[in-house]
Amino acid sequence: MTHALNRPAPAHGRPPAPRKRFGTKAGRQHHAGPFTYVLLGFAALISLFPLYWNLVAASHTGERVVQAPSPLLPGKELFNNLSIAWNQVDMGEALINTTIVAGAVACSTVLFATLAGFAFAKLEFKGRNVLLTIVVATMTVPPQLSVIPLYQLITEFGWVNQLQSVILPSLVAAFGVFFMRQYLLEALPVELIEAARVDGAHSLRIIWHVVFPVARPAMAVLGMLIFVQAWNDFFWPFIALTPDGSPTLQVALAGLGSGNHSINHAIVLTGALLATLPLLVVFAVLGKHIVGGITSGAVKS
Fold first, then answer.
1. What angle do CA 197, 217, 29 make, to 5 degrees?
2. Which of 67, 92, 173, 294 has the most Cβ atoms closer than 10 angstroms to its Cβ?
3. What is the pLDDT of residue 180?
């Protein structure tokens, strides 16, 4: 009885809350169970299987690739097919041309889309909503509608079969502008811009020291997406360029493996393998920048 009277009463007359088995603090990490790892491993195998089979097909002859059942183990013709694919359409020049085109398009799109996205997200000017609507509306226009006037334009400039005919029409994309606008609308606090202006920073300094650090994760993602899109673009480069001139990879692959009224599918898949390997490097490099940008460039308002 004495011990019961001396026991401190709970605050506000409420019984003490029961202890929780799992912590609920913000930022607490929970370990995944075995089922999660099994599911992720299965998804990884499904995602990597097409790349693996491409490697397997590139290591066999064309006759073996089209036979049923398809081969599932590597063969002995990989280096021979690599030599044929590399020399048949000058794959080295096509790789250089595609790297120049995709790199220039990705860098210009990221730069211009970030500037335009910042203007649409944080700057007040007349007609902002109307201009943004027009930019977004251009995404609904099929690219096939602009082929004839665009080809006439590059013909007048004398750019047919030159890389600038592929680079200049793709210097900025409406998707990139909208993507960066949506990101900066939430990630960039207005207080940062106002504080920079109070400190006497001009617009270019604000963009370099405030906007770019905050937008770095989105810029890395957009750069990766645009680079892959430009790398795999076939429709317009096939019209503006020729396999005998300065082709990109997709244009060069269109004439790969043909001869004697038949197509050697092993050679075609070997060329596709050569065209895929640089993309894997880009994913690996930009993936690190994305993670680093999220941890160091993100700002909370």
1. 115
2. 173
3. 94
